[in-house]
Specification:
Blueprint lengths: L12 E4 L9 H14 L7 H7 L4 H8 L5 H20 L11 H10 L3 E5 L4 H10 L6 E5 L11 H10 L6 E5 L2 H9 L3 E5 L6 H6 L4 E3 L5 H10 L1
Parallel strand pairs: 1-2, 1-4, 2-3, 4-5, 5-6
Helix pairs in contact: 1-4, 3-4
Length: 230
């Protein structure tokens, strides 16, 4: 990961969600969930319902898809899903493409002096793998995952990212594609930017009152500058 000088002034932090924001991972998520369900005797889940839960803890997603299952069944499904993901990673089968403009905006913000962090529902291994595959891990000063903090929308990921970077909430922006990202930002008293190319509808994003809503990564730089200047 990137090293940084905590005495630099001013410090400004941009925290990205991963799935649906930086990378398009829905196909792998849906495939692993489907295999986990079928191996445990359940019908394949509705892809749109799986996509709507991306970003939440696995047990919460599975519980919403199968509300009548026991805690033991839910845990088996969680472990089966994680095992499927790990196996695909070990076989080198998980290619999760960057969203258009993602690389360029991360590089621009980094070059402009912003600190860059990640707050994702992914596990640490999968998150680091995705950043390494795309040659971006050195741009990030903090990587917060489901292994390092409570799941969204608990503010822990953002709080830990800000603590590691030495940046106050007033100088931090959360960028994400779901209402869980926006609620995370709200719970951490951080401004947010919603992106519309991910897994939640624009209307749902707007209803949470983000500081900005953008349709292309090229629009992020100016909105980050505007929000941090206000």
């Amino acid at each position: 990961m990137r090293s940084f000088d905590p005495s630099s002034d001013p410090l400004r932090l941009v925290v990205f969600d991963m799935d649906g924001t930086l990378i398009d991972s829905q196909h792998h998520i849906i495939a692993s969930m489907t295999r986990s369900f079928e191996r445990n005797g359940f019908a394949a889940p509705d892809p749109a319902s799986v996509r709507a839960g991306v970003g939440l803890p696995l047990e919460v997603i599975i519980g919403s898809l199968l509300p009548d299952i026991s805690p033991e069944q839910c845990e088996r499904l969680v472990q089966d899903y994680r095992g499927d993901h790990r196996a695909r990673l070990d076989r080198g089968e998980r290619h999760e493409p960057l969203m258009p403009g993602a690389r360029e905006v991360v590089e621009r913000l980094d070059a402009a002096g912003y600190l860059i962090a990640l707050a994702t529902g992914k596990g640490t291994r999968g998150a680091r793998h995705a950043l390494e595959v795309h040659g971006l891990i050195d741009r990030f000063v903090s990587i917060q995952t489901s292994d390092t903090a409570p799941g969204k929308p608990h503010p822990g990921m953002l709080i830990q990212a800000m603590n590691e970077a030495g940046v106050e909430a007033s100088a931090t922006i959360m960028v994400g594609d779901t209402v869980y990202d926006l609620e995370l930002a709200r719970n951490a008293s951080v401004a947010s930017v919603a992106v519309t190319w991910g897994y939640h509808d624009r209307a749902d994003l707007v209803s949470f009152g983000p500081g900005a809503v953008i349709d292309h990564f090229d629009d992020l730089d100016v909105e980050v500058e505007r929000l941090l200047a206000s």
